C-alpha cells in the first residue's frame, strides 16, 4: 500500500473491520472526487475477492444508463472474478444470487472482501435493485462470518436515505459508516509536498481556496510549476482537465442537475447567503417539500452549509455556498477564454475580493484549528457569521466569524488575507468599536466577554490601535 495522506483513522477502522472475524458491512460516502475508491483500493485492494463499480449515468448525455447496462456490467465483473460464463442475469435478484454462488465457490475459509463502488448509480428507476441488495445481505451475507461487504457512493443523500438511515430491510444492518471529507489545509499541504510540489504557505492556502482540499483535483498539480501555472493548467487552458468538471459534478449526482446548479449559482452571487424563500424565488418554485429535499441533498453532499442567524428568532435559516471549487469556478472559470487568466489576474481587485471571501470560508471550515490556537479546543461553542442591515440607529455591518463559547467568552473574529501585516487605522478602529457594540446588543448577555480576534495571513501591525485586539491567530496555525 502506498502512503495515504490524511486518512489514518479511516485506515485503522477499515483494518479493524477486516480483522474482526465476523460479518461486516461498511458504507463509505462523501463528496465526489474525495478519494473513497482510492482509499478502499489502497487498504483492501490485494485482499479483495470481488470488485464492481456502478456505471456512471453521465457517460452519454443523450440517454441515461439503463438497468440492462448496469446488470451486464455487474455480470462481467463476476466473470472477471471467476464466474463461469453462463446465462446473463435479467434481474437484480438473479444477479445477486449468482454473486452468492460465486462467493461460495471461491470460499476457502479466509476473509472475503466484496467492494461495490458507486452503489447509488446501480439503483436505476423501477429496477428493484435495493430490494435485491437487501436480500443479498440479510438473507445470505450477514450470516457469513468471513464476509466483509464495503459499499461506496458519491450521492450522499442516497447513501444516507437508503443505507445509513434505512428504515426498511436494511434498518440497523450497517456495521460501520465512514463519511470521508476533503483534506484539511494541513493535509492539503502534506499531499502536495508528497508529490514534490514546492509552494509557500500563502500559495498552499490559495490552492486550498481554489480546489477545496479535493484529492482528485490536487493530484493533477505538477512540480516545477508555480501556483498560477498549475491553476491555469487545470482550469483555464484550452485543454484544461477540470474545465467541464462543474457540469460533470452535478450531472453525476443529481437527476435534475440544472435546478441544483441554479441554487448553487444563486448562492455564489450572495456572499452572506440566502434564505429559503430567496432560493425559492431564484428557482421560480414554491418553498415546499421538493425544495427541502434539494437543499438537504446539497447540504449532505458538502456544497451548501446551513447557518442559524444570531439574534432575531424570526429570521429564516441562511444557506451559504460551502464548496471552494464551485465558488472559484463560477467566479472566474465559467465563460473565461484566457488560457493564462490566473497568472495574469492575481493582482486585480476582483481577485483580491475573492481571496478575502475564500479565506473567510477556509477559516469557517477550520474552526477546530482556530479554537486550538486560542487554547479552547475542548470548549463547546457555536459558530456563525452575522450580517446586519442598516436601520434608523445603526449602519449595516458584516461579522466574518463569531465563536460563542460555553466559557462565557465570545470571539469576534476579523479575517484578513493580506500580503503584509494588516494595519488598523483610525477609521477601521471606529468600525470595530461599533461592531463590538452591535454584537453586545445581539447577545443580550452581560456575563459574556467579547474578545476581538484577528485571523490573518501576516498578522496585525503594531500601532496605537492594535492594542484593542485580544488575540491573534496566524495562517501558519491553521495547517
Overview of the molecule:
This protein is an alpha/beta fold and 479 residues long. It has three domains: 8-179, P-loop containing nucleotide triphosphate hydrolases (Rossmann fold), CATH 3.40.50.300; 182-364, Winged helix-like DNA-binding domain superfamily/Winged helix DNA-binding domain (Arc Repressor Mutant, subunit A, Orthogonal Bundle); 366-478, Trna Endonuclease, Chain: A, domain 1. The protein contains 20 helices and 13 strands. The protein has helices at residues 8-18, 36-44, 67-81, 92-106, 119-122, 129-139, 156-164, 185-194, 201-211, 215-218, 227-236, 245-253, 257-268, 276-283, 289-300, 324-333, 341-345, 349-364, 367-373, 426-443; strands at 24-29, 48-53, 112-117, 147-153, 176-179, 274-275, 304-307, 318-321, 381-388, 397-405, 409-416, 449-456, 471-474. The protein has a five-stranded parallel β-sheet, with helices on both faces.
Q: State the helical fraction.
A: 40-55%
Low-confidence stretches: none
The helix tally amounts to 20
Kindly report the CATH topology of the largest domain.
Arc Repressor Mutant, subunit A
Overall mean pLDDT: 93
Question: What topology, given as strand order, has the largest sheet?
Answer: 2-3-4-1-5
